[in-house]
């Protein structure tokens, strides 16, 4: 006889599969142009959008993302909104603290009545609210994390990430393959953030190395987001004299400190930093431009170019930033990302037309087909299905040349 727990799991699985089928069916049904259909937070004139962002705390340098999203929506609204509806963004500070993210999400859903939660920053804060949002069938759209856990439409059918690069497992595999192409016998030192995201990156490194992992990894050392410095970890790793130094962090500070300290002690391995740290303004300048020369990072967004000659999209971004956020550092990848994720949401909402129920918003998110965004690099488009919630799977290896990030590889396909 099946236990009550087995029955519950079976019912949960059936419900999730039924929703997936409904999402797929919604995209094949007759367009909703003949009949307006709204969910919570939507009217003829408005779409109410909830967001949390670390405007304070250790990850506050990333808050430029939220400011750019708000500015982008302002520009869209000044041009008439999306299908005649203004985008009303309610963005709350969660200080990159999961309990505060949970408190803010409840307020946004239960008090502010938003249609969905959009672009929450980070794996841990987004994880803290995923169960609550999925239980209440509230879309958690384009959350900002490269963790592979977000590609789980059966168990988390209301959660989808939009990372700035392939997920952490793919990123680790590409980093390892790129390093081994140069030195097949390379020994690796890994500095990683002690949370789900950092542990996933480390797991990806081990999986990529396979049977060689125990021998090839000279040492792996963790740190906490709130740690004031990672200098002691870097000194310990440097003593291994490893050939490759892999640095995973979500906060620019730790990436900058790791690059600087390795340089200061004369350790000169091939260095890779997490895709979210490929940032001149918040990582390379604090680390020292000379210290950062040669550092590699995987990315899907175009590297910032101060004076683009043949890229009208980058020119448009620069003009937008100078007009909308004149005091912000435009050479900040978190700003480019904010512009990109806001653009992606506008495309999605236009695709929804007048059917703005939560079910259809999620259904359209699960059926993106070769969607181009202005700041994605050539050959990269958004693609999802009801069975695959990974909008971005491919990237390029970027290298810091001492002044700018430049493309250093052909398009690298993720799995």
Summarize the structure.
InterPro entries: Leu-bd (IPR028081), Peripla_BP_I (IPR028082). This protein is α/β, with parallel strands linked by helices and 415 residues long.
Task: Provide a descriptive summary of the structure in words.
Belongs to the leucine-binding protein family. 42% of the residues lie in helices and 15% in strands. It has helices spanning 4-28, 64-78, 98-111, 123-135, 168-182, 196-209, 213-216, 231-238, 252-264, 280-287, 289-292, 312-324, 333-352, 358-365, and strands at residues 37-38, 46-53, 86-93, 116-118, 140-143, 159-161, 188-193, 217-223, 244-248, 270-273, 296-299, 355-356, 396-400, 405-407. The radius of gyration is 21 Å and the shape is globular. The chain has 415 residues and is of the alpha/beta class. The longest helix has 25 residues, at 4-28. Helix 9 (252-264) links the parallel strand 9 and strand 10. The strands form 4 sheets. A 5-stranded parallel sheet has the order 3-2-4-5-6, sandwiched between helices. The chain has a 4-stranded parallel sheet with strand order 8-7-9-10, sandwiched between helices. Strands 11-13-14 form a 3-stranded antiparallel sheet, covered by helices on one side. The two termini are 40 Å apart.
Backbone CA Rg: 21 Å
Distance between the termini: 40 Å
The major pleated sheet works out as: 5 strands, parallel
- Overall mean pLDDT stands at 91
Please estimate the helix content: 40-55%
Order of helices and strands: HEEHEHEHEEHEHHEHEHEHHEHHEHEE
* Portion in strands: 15-25%
